[in-house]
Design brief:
single chain, 4-stranded antiparallel β-sheet, 13 helices
């Protein structure tokens, strides 16, 4: 039987081919390191300053975990992670300037790099000398390691707050100028934050100790015992907000300003405001009564301006020079900016859609924006999209001013002076007490003529001096 099978096999016309050995294949290894790009945070911002890192190489992060805090020329923003993974490399150190669109750090994740990230990474790697060059991660890692090796030993003393290493860009610039280690300074600000005064006191105390230890023996000459004070100059780097102010004010010189000023009688509005503040209701939230914010004059002025813009939409427009022929872009929403003085500098968040808000809504929004501004927590949305600005320098002092149009997207600005009490003549010739405030307007004279601005200013004046007319026109 076996011989029969062998015979058939040898004569079978279709011999079975022995299967070829199958080689071992492996797929291309997945890329696990993703560059975390600094995304656009709006308003044409091209670079930000790294204030502090919340992570270090080797730290595990999840989506929405805080990576770092950055300071733009308008506000401080916390950057959160979009991936789950482990931090591999930090491309910048604290106080470095990071470019929008460039990698902030590398995160080790178990997924492939998206085409968008890969294209952005490839384009940035071609730029020689840029912060995101291939040599930069190695330099940052070496710098980070060297700082760890050179870290001074712990000094006995009272425990420091977890916020004690936080400081604004201006303070950090002063630290660098005076060559002061932030860890040596005891902060007196909120939660132990370092203030300018703390740095100056530390530097002064250090200078005193240094001069005492290096005092030379007394000289026998009377002239040598008296020292002549010398002028000292200390260069300080501009903070991001100051740098933006420098650029913005320089650009504003190309706008021809038309100035218009008038005095407004606040007597009637002052009485109405007092009555409203005495009768404001409370809102109940979870059975907890919360009083509404007290009304200042600013919400009434902002609302009056919005009502006037409905009749003079030109002052709510912007100039477009994107093409060879300039044009005007009219806008339907009244996003009125309110200039605010903060420890970091002047910023102008805006109240969105004022035409649809009540006086109380405007007051609440101003209070919200002011609280965020003082805490450096304003978002890009709070700062973007302004159409006209109100600046209240009178809250500090001054009667008249010449406001400057700082935004290229606006054609008008209103400046408010200090409210004051003056004697005035009544209709019957008698002397009466009046409360007045000066309104100073500026408009882009390339597109706004003086008559248009004056008519708009008269409408605002009438609404403020006779607030009952404002109530009639409220929607």
């Amino acid at each position: 039987m076996n011989s029969l099978f062998r015979s058939l096999r040898s004569h079978w016309p279709y011999r079975l081919a022995r299967p070829l050995p199958r080689p071992f294949h492996t797929t291309a290894p997945l890329a696990v390191v993703k560059p975390f790009l600094l995304s656009d945070i709006g308003e044409g911002i091209k670079e930000v300053q790294i204030i502090q890192w919340f992570v270090e190489p080797g730290a595990r992060v999840e989506q929405f975990s805080k990576l770092c805090e950055v300071q733009s020329d308008k506000a401080a923003v916390e950057i959160t992670s979009r991936f789950d993974g482990v931090i591999k490399t930090l491309h910048y150190e604290a106080e470095d300037m990071a470019q929008v669109g460039k990698p902030l750090c590398d995160i080790d994740v178990l997924s492939e790099i998206s085409p968008e990230d890969e294209a952005a990474l490839g384009s940035t790697a071609e730029q020689a000398g840029s912060p995101s060059s291939p040599q930069q991660p190695q330099k940052a890692a070496e710098k980070h390691q060297s700082e760890q090796d050179q870290e001074p030993p712990a000094v006995d003393g009272p425990p420091r707050s977890r916020h004690s290493s936080l400081a604004t860009p201006a303070v950090r610039g002063l630290l660098k100028t005076l060559d002061v280690d932030i860890r040596s300074v005891t902060g007196t600000g909120k939660d132990g934050r370092i203030l300018k005064e703390d740095v100056q006191k530390f530097a002064a105390a250090r200078s005193t100790v240094s001069s005492t230890s290096s005092t030379s023996p007394p000289s026998s000459s009377p002239a040598a015992s008296t020292s002549t004070p010398t002028q000292t100059e200390t260069p300080i780097t501009l903070s991001p907000i100051q740098s933006q102010m420098f650029k913005t004010m320089t650009r504003s010189l190309s706008i021809p300003h038309f100035i218009y000023a008038d005095e407004i009688d606040f007597t009637a509005l002052s009485r109405l405001r007092t009555q409203l503040n005495n009768t404001l209701p409370t809102t109940k939230d979870d059975s907890k009564a919360t009083p509404l914010p007290k009304l200042s004059y600013l919400p009434f002025i902002v609302k009056s301006l919005s009502l006037a813009l409905s009749s003079f939409p030109l002052l709510n427009a912007r100039v477009s020079t994107s093409s060879s022929k300039p044009s005007l872009i009219f806008r339907s929403s009244h996003n009125i900016g309110v200039a605010m003085d903060t420890p970091q500098g002047l910023i102008v968040p805006n109240i969105k859609h004022v035409q649809g808000l009540s006086i109380l809504n405007i007051a609440a929004e101003i209070a919200r924006l002011r609280a965020l501004a003082l805490a450096s927590k304003l978002t890009a949305a709070d700062l973007a999209g302004g159409t006209v600005t109100v600046t209240n320098i009178g809250s500090i002092g001054g009667t008249y001013l010449s406001p400057i149009i700082a935004s290229e997207n606006e054609v008008a600005i209103l400046g408010l002076g200090r409210k004051r009490v003056v004697p005035a003549f009544a209709d019957d010739g008698g002397v009466v007490r009046k409360e007045v405030m000066s309104f100073s307007w500026s408009a882009d004279h390339r597109v706004v003529d003086g008559a248009t601005l004056a008519r708009c200013a008269e409408v605002v004046k009438g609404l403020v001096e006779r607030p009952e007319g404002m109530v009639v026109r409220l929607r």
